[in-house]
Each structure stands twice: as structure tokens, then as C-alpha cells.
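User: Can you help me understand a structure? I only have the sequence.
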Amino acid sequence: MKADDTDQEVAARLESLATERQKLTIPDVAPFVEKLYDSPRGSCGCCLHIVLDDQNVADDHVRFCVTGALERQHSLCYGIARCLLKMSKTQRLKLAMTKGRVDRR
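Assistant: Let's start by predicting it. Here is the structure, written out as C-alpha cells:
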């Protein structure tokens, strides 16, 4: 992924991942999480903060984020959340622990 990729290009890649693959891995999703945190809206995890920052990784938590992203029309969060549903809870937790930006004092 390039830094100058448009939101539409990124959303298209996420849609492709979420629909074409049965299972996803941390390396599949991590670049999109990094792009989210680098975006103006994503500095604190945006629609996904309960998963990425608070480490609530159950399916219901991720589905809640899908709904929130749809309501806010935030395609990046929506795409990432759909991809998270293709990951195990253990993978989600590892992703949150390595790419989330929660203060762990």
C-alpha cells in the first residue's frame, strides 16, 4: 500500500480481501490498521477503537464496529472491521496489541 492511495483504492482492496478470502492473517490486515491510525479521523482507532485500543475482540464487538462504520460512512473502518471478522480472536488480540495505540503503563 502506498501512502498516497486514495480512500477509494484502499476500500476496494479491503472489499476484495473481505469477500475473496476465507481467512485473513495479521500481515494481511496490519497495513490497513496503520493507514487508519495515520489518517486524520483514525488517530485513536476511530470506529474500531473498542477492538484496536481496548482489545475487545469478540465477534459481537467487531460487528458493533461494522455497524458504527456504516452509520458514519467510514469506508476504511468498515473494510477493516469486515476483515477482522475473517480472523480468529487470538489474531485480533495480537493485532490490537501490536498495532493498537493504547497506553500500557
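Now, to help you interpret it: The helical segments are 7-20, 26-38, 49-52, 59-72, 75-84, 89-99. The chain has one domain: 7-99. Let me know which part you'd like to focus on.
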